[in-house]
Amino acid sequence: MLRSPLSGDTEAGAAVTLTGWGRTEPTVARVCDPADAAELAILLRHAPARGIIARGLGRSYNNAAQNDGGQVVITTRLSRITDFDTHHGIAVCEAGVSLEQLMITGLPAGWFVPVSPGTRQVTVGGAIAADVHGKNHHAAGSFASHVRWFDLVLPDGQQRRVTPEDDPRVFWATAGGMGLTGIIVRAAVQLTKVQTSRVAVDTVRTTDIDQALAYLADTDQSYTYSVAWLDCLASGARLGRSVITSGNFAQPGDLPLKERRDPLSFRPTARIGAPRSCPPGLVNKHTVALANEAWYRKAARRRAGELQTIGAFFHPLDGIRNWNRVYGPAGFRQYQLVVPLAADRTIRRALERISRAGAPSFVTVLKRFGPGDDGFLSFPMAGWTLALDFPARTPGLAGLLTALDDDVLAAGGRVYLAKDSRLGPDALPAMYPRLPEFRQVRAELDPSGVMRSDLSRRLGL
Ligand SMILES: Cc1cc2nc3c(=O)[nH]c(=O)nc-3n(C[C@H](O)[C@H](O)[C@H](O)COP(=O)(O)OP(=O)(O)OC[C@H]3O[C@@H](n4cnc5c(N)ncnc54)[C@H](O)[C@@H]3O)c2cc1C
Residue 55: CB within 6 Å of ligand 1? Predict the structure, then answer.
């Protein structure tokens, strides 16, 4: 296990090759995992010339938590939940605590994380730094809106408690700021009250994208959580056919009698693991077309009130350990866009481009976002978001994604930085109009550019 020697070394830790979850663009950095905020502050004070960046559980898809030739600080030893107010549902925890840990602690007392991405294997620090969103964005906004305060170790090693009321510029530069304002070491998170750990799920199948958009727009107010899975290879009259699942946490009376004795049970396990090495090309347009057909046909045309566990509803991919290996050694590229609600035509055009190119996105997800928060670089805005993942070796992928970028820009939308692997600096100011405010705070907190990552160098952040 990596341990920081902290013996005056300016580049503490072992040299390690790192990638994001998509396993593209590996780079080598000095990596160490400090035990507490004091060790972490020493590392910041002795940062090497190539700078330093925090890394949580490495679930961002590309190189936000990498730092080629510099220092990477893994936060997962900061893993204590130091206070949990079971009455008000406020958890005070170190930044390396995972959302799964928060669920294990909170659920017995009836508290669930306020926002969950599609995996619970992310840290609280990573959830704030990417200001992550979940299936409830239209109802609850993104993660940072539920953070009461955090302790930030600034690039000069000083520690500061940051609240949205007293220090809004630093708070909203850090929420969504991809680790570039300092390293979060502790946070207070307001959890959400639930009566059970099961979600009552309604499922409908739509024959095309228009039906999917209309259904989500009509029904979002009735559900806390909703998302549409799309068949990205369907074309013509079936373009964007989808399976939509929407749900609310169940009440104890909804559960079968035998489950009512333990309505808040939560047993997070990964059922199987992906093999260490999968052959290249396993995920291709033929296998994805077959899988999509099977998935679509298997889904109920319309089903109401099916009880699903938290794992099945929120984190189905966590059921397979290291599922990212399925894409083979070349890895895969995630791409997530959002466009304003009025730009639904851009979603249609994106699907036309993808199906025409035969580009096999294995997991294609559409969701309707509510209004964004104040994060200068936070991704969500009121609109339609489409998330895709393509094998990195998909023929013509670079051209396809550039065309999508252009459509997104023309529609006034943006691409998600926690998933991005290829944007250049030119697109950024239009996609993120509050970028100058972010840069201003960064210049004040970090005049000598201590905080750096491969992502920040690529985008000139
Ligand atoms: C299967 C899967 C599903 C996903 N679904 C969603 C989704 O539905 N919605 C969504 O929004 N995202 C989603 N994501 C992306 C993921 O939620 C984010 O990338 C999240 O930031 C990952 O957290 P992490 O702890 O792994 O951080 P890392 O990937 O290690 O780091 C991500 C960023 O956070 C910064 N960071 C990490 N810790 C700290 C800290 N303590 N202080 C300051 N900065 C820090 C890093 O520097 C980096 O810039 C998904 C990812 C996967 C693999």
Answer: yes
